[in-house]
Amino acid sequence: MNRGPRFGWRHSFFLLAVIGLLILCVAIGQLPQIHGNPTWRTVTFFLLLPACLAVTFSWPRTGRPRIQAAGILLLALVVRLALAPHPVDSDVNRYLWEGRLIREGYDPYALLASAPEWADQRDAYWAGMNEKDLRTIYPPVAEWTFAAIGALWYHPAALKAAFIILDLGSVALLLAMLAARSQPLRLAGLYAFNPVPLIGFSAEGHFDAMLIFLVLLALWLRERRHTVWSWIALGLAVQTKLVAVLLAPLFARSGGWRTGWVGAAIALLPFLPYSADINAWLSGVHHFGADFGFNGSIHALLSMALGNRTIAAILCAVLLILWIALVTFLKTDLWRSAFFVLGGLIVLSPIVHYWYVSWALVFVPLFPSLAWITLSGTVTLYFLVELTPEWSMPFWGQTVLWTTFGVLLVRETILVLPSLVSLRRFGMPPKVGSLAVVVPTLNESSTLSTCLRSIALMSPLPDEVIVVDGASIDGTREIGARSGATVISSAAGRGRQIAAGVAAARSDVVLVLHADSELLPDAGSRIIAALNARAEAIGGAVGQRFGRDTPSLCVIECLNEIRAVFLGLSFGDQGQFFRRAAIMGGGGFPNLPLMEDVELSLRLRIAGPTLYLGQGLVCSDRRWRQENWFKRFVTVMALTAIYRLRRREGAQITDILYRRYYPTTAGNTRHGLPLTTELCPANQDVID
Prior knowledge:
The chain has about 700 residues and is of the alpha/beta class. A seven-stranded mixed beta sheet has the order 3-2-1-4-8-6-9, sandwiched between helices. Helix 1 packs parallel to helix 4 (about 65-85) and helix 20 runs antiparallel to helix 21.
C-alpha cells in the first residue's frame, strides 16, 4: 500500500496552520490597533482557537516521540515570545509593587495599597494598579516569588518571562503524561496553542501559570508514588493560589492522608511572619469570594433568583463541597478527578476571569472535552467588558458564553456519570495482556495478504488472528489459512462477521481490522499499554491515515480525528478496540449489517472512557476514489445521522441503510443483504 510521500499535502496543511498561528500571535503581540480595541481583541482571540485546532490536528504523525515533543515545545515557545510585546494586565503592576514592598521589609497585608502610610513607596507600577482600596489576596509564597523576580529586574517583562517558562513546564508535563498513557503527543497542542494560556500568561502576564505548573507537578509526582513530594508541590500550589486546596481530598484518599501533614505545613508555615495581619488577609479573601460577582454562571443565576450575591455564593460553596465529596468518593483517575474538581470550581465560582478557564483547560489534552474547548473560544466575549462603562459583561454575552458551554457540559456529564458510578460499584477492570485481531472479509484476495503481513510484523505478535469470511468466492479463505490465521465463516454483513469473530476470540482485548488496512508494528503494544495506564477505559480507536496524500483525504483524516477525540465516536477503519469481557458482558458486539462501528462507539462511550491513540494503521481510499468525494461525504454524514436518530430500530434500520449505501444491488437481496458480493466488500466502513 502506498504510504504517501515524505512531504505532501499533510505537511503543507501543517505549515499553513503554523504560519497562520504565528501571524495571529505576532499581530496580537505587536499591533496597538488590537491592544486598544475590544472588538478586535475579541475577534483575534477567537481566531486563535481554530488556529490551535488546525496546528494540533495537522501535526505530523510520523517521527520519533522525542522529536515530536521537542517540536511542540519549540513552537509553544515561539508563539509565546511572539505574544510577549503585548501590554501586561494591570494585575502585573500589583505583582511588581507588592513584591517591592516585600524586598524593602514591609508587610503587604498590613495596609491597603491606597494607605497614606505607603505614599513614599508609590511609583509608576502603583499608579497602574487596579482596586487599590482592596486588600491583597495573594498568599506569601506568591508574594515572595514576585519579590524574587523583581529583584532580578523590576519590570513586567521579567514576570512575563518567568510565567512563560512555567507555562512551558506545564506543556512538558502534559507531554510526559501523554507519552506515559500512549496517547498522541500532538494533543498537548490543545493547551500549548490555546488562546486562553497564550493571551492570559504570555500576553497579559497573569501568574496562574505558576499555579497550573505546581498542580501538574503534584499530580505527576503522586502518579509516580512520590507521595511526600507531591504534598510539597500541592502545598506550594496552595501558597500560590488558594483554589489548589480543593485538591487536597483527592491527594488524601487511598492512604495519602498519612503524609498530608507535610502539605499542610507547606501551606501554613509561610503565613507565620504575617500572623499579626492574618485576619485582615482572610477578610480580603472572604470579601473577594463572597461579596463580588463577575461573569459567573450558576452563581449569576442564583444571584438573580435570590437577589443576594452573598447567599448565592454560600449555596455555590455548598454545591462545590458536595461535588468534591462525590468526585473523591468515586475514586476515578487522579488526573481526571482533578479536572472534575477544578472544572466544578469554575462552573460554581462567583468570579470567572477568562484566564481562570486554564485551571481546567490544562487537562483537556488528557481528557478531551468539546465543552471546555468551546469555552476556550467563546470566553473571548469577556473582552466586551471594555465596551461598558461599569466594566461588566453584557447580559447577552454572558448568556451566550455559559449557555453554549452548559449545553455541551451537561451532555458530557450525562455520558460520564453512569460509567463513574459503575466503576465505583464494580471496581476497576483487571489488567489486560492478550490481544486478538479480528478481520472481516468478503472477496478480499487482492488486499488480505498485505493486511495479514502487517499483522505478522507486529511486536509483540497478537495472541489470536481471526479472519471471519462471509462466503468469499475468490480465494480469500485460502489466503487467510496460509497465513496461519484462524478462519471461520459467518453470514455476510460486516457487523455480523465481526460479532462472530469476537465471540470466537478468547483474548483480553479485541482489535477490529479491515482487510484493506495495514497495522503499524507498535499498534498492539500501544493498545495494551493505554488500557493498562487508564484502567477505567473500555476501548477506543488507534487512529488511521490513508495510503495516499491528497487534499480531500487530509480533510477526511482531520474530521475523523476530531470526531474521535472530542465526541468519542470512531469508525471501523480507525481500528476500533475494546475489552472483550466488557463487550460480551454487555450483550456482545453489535450484530448489525451496517453501522456496527457507530453503535459500538456509542456503547463504549456510555460504558466508560474511550481512548484515541492517534496513529495505528494505514487504510485504503478505494471507495473515495471510486465515487465523487463530496457526494460520498454527504451520503456518509446523512446515513450516520439517520442511524443515530433511529438506532432503537436496530437491524431493521441498518438493513434499510445498507440498501441505500449499496443502491446498485438493492434489487438483488436476501435477508436485507446483497447477493452480488463483489460490489459490497465486507470491510467497507461508514467512512472508508
